[in-house]
């Protein structure tokens, strides 16, 4: 049967030879899958900046689905998603500033910190 090549991005295997590997690595499906994989590791600021420059996808807003999926050139984020992402970016900026100042940062994630902060602010406003 010979050696087989398994592509982690596409989750498929094929006979390993120069022609097949080159054809696969330059294929549209592989390039899209690779881009989606690396997009998982982008920081929130880059995602926010990119999403703010895009126009909203009309089909996604109307039906909740888009035929193009992650390959769509329009934004599939709602206003609430953008606000959450913006809050996450602000939280990350504050955390970096605190780290530069040498402040003692409690263990936990940024989301935990933001949730606690939101609870404190809502409690303060209700009082």
From TrEMBL:
Q: Name one Pfam family in it.
A: zf-U1
Annotated transmembrane regions? none
Specify the protein name: Zinc finger matrin-type protein 5
What's one GO MF term for it?
zinc ion binding
- Protein location: Nucleus
Q: In residue numbers, where are the C3H1-type zinc fingers?
A: 51-79
Task: Tell me the gene name.
Answer: Zmat5
List the record's Gene Ontology CC terms alphabetically: U12-type spliceosomal complex
Primary localization:
nucleus
Q: Which GO terms describe its biological process?
A: mRNA processing; RNA splicing
